[in-house]
Design a protein that fits this description.
The chain is an alpha/beta fold. The protein has one domain (about 5-190, about 220-245): 3-Layer(aba) Sandwich (Rossmann fold). The protein is built from eight helices and seven strands, in the order E-H-E-H-E-H-E-H-E-H-E-H-H-H-E. The chain has helices at about 20-30, 45-55, 70-85, 105-135, 155-175, 195-200, 200-210, 225-230; strands spanning about 10-15, 35-40, 60-65, 90, 135-140, 180-185, 240-245. The protein has a seven-stranded parallel sheet with strand order 3-2-1-4-5-6-7, with helices on both faces. Helix 1 (about 20-30) crosses helix 8 and helix 3 packs across helix 4. It is globular, with a radius of gyration of 17 Å. It binds NADP nicotinamide-adenine-dinucleotide phosphate. NADP nicotinamide-adenine-dinucleotide phosphate (NAP) binds near residues 95, 189 and 190. Its EC number is 1.1.1.127. One of its GO terms (molecular function) is 2-dehydro-3-deoxy-D-gluconate 5-dehydrogenase activity. It is an enzyme of class 1 (oxidoreductase). It comes from Parasphingorhabdus cellanae.
Length: about 250
């Protein structure tokens, strides 16, 4: 297969939660493959923008809080106006709340579901309306090991990421014939702010490392190749797939 299958030159991508962690890793990887990137988040992604400019691509900062669906349509129109189109959406922004199921609060339920699932759906809807008009596009949702497994003390996170898996397949079913590929990446244990508490917990850290066949935490850069693949022509016949990038965790 020629490298041109993975070439994103001339493409425009939106990446949510792009100031840090997995979102930053994916945004930079897409830019290295040739795409211009709209960096969406409640914190400006200046560091990510610098890395994108360093590889000669454009970066547009879009300040938006995805704890509600209110900014979704504006994100899509701003990205289009600033960068001249929309080909790729990466729904990466996400949060986690930890507590025993017996003590889990409604606020910890709603905040995680609203950000991780509800905004993901309505931003995808806004983007898909444009992609349908333009003849197609790629949507990549960031799922989790807890799309497949139950986890512990993270009730709303498990519910939201299991929902992301279901929605990825539903949207693929509805939009494949409209030229839109909807797929997901399920990261394993990746060293970011999201997992800082786990990394700091000596016992849990040792348990996690002992179960990962690759014997290390993943790095945000480990997700870049999967994101480029699912954004590219190489994935034109890939629909509704949830690609684990997990150091072998699910195979164990
Ligand atoms: P992270 O470093 O905490 O990054 C989360 C990103 O989401 C940040 O940019 C954050 O912005 C943004 N975000 C959170 N709430 C938002 C809101 N209301 N509006 C806009 N942006 C918001 O964590 P990460 O590990 O890179 O997580 C990225 C995605 O990967 C999440 O969906 C997470 O569930 C998923 N994931 C992570 C792992 C892992 O092991 N790390 C594994 C599986 C799945 P701020 O910086 O402003 O908070």
């Amino acid at each position: 297969m020629s490298n041109s299958y993975f070439d994103l030159t001339g493409k425009v991508a939106i990446v949510t939660g792009a100031n840090t962690g997995i979102g930053q890793g994916i945004a930079v990887a897409l830019a290295e493959a040739g795409a211009d990137i709209a960096l969406v988040g409640r914190t400006d992604a200046n560091e990510t923008a610098e890395k994108i400019h360093a590889v000669g691509r454009k970066a547009e900062l879009i300040r938006a809080d995805l704890s509600t669906t209110e900014p979704c349509e504006n994100i899509v129109s701003t990205a289009q106006d600033a960068l001249g189109g929309l080909d790729i959406l990466v729904n990466n922004a996400g949060i986690i709340r930890r507590n025993d199921a017996l003590d889990f609060t409604e606020d910890d339920w709603d905040s995680v579901m609203d950000t991780n699932l509800k905004s993901l759906f309505f931003l995808s809807q806004a983007a898909a309306k444009v992609m349908v008009e333009n003849g197609g596009g790629k949507i990549i949702n960031i799922a989790s090991m807890l799309t497949f497994q139950g986890g512990i003390r993270v009730a709303s996170y498990t519910a939201s990421k299991s929902g992301v898996g279901g929605l990825t397949k539903l949207l693929a079913n509805e939009w494949a014939a409209r030229g839109i590929n909807v797929n997901a990446i399920a990261p394993g244990y990746i060293a970011t702010n999201n997992t800082a508490a786990l990394q700091a917990d000596e016992q849990r850290n040792a348990e996690i490392l002992g179960r990962i066949p690759a014997s290390r935490w993943g790095d945000p850069d480990d997700l870049g190749g999967a994101a480029v693949f699912l954004s590219s022509d190489a994935a034109n016949y890939v629909h509704g797939h949830i690609l684990a990038v997990d150091g072998g965790w699910l195979a164990r």
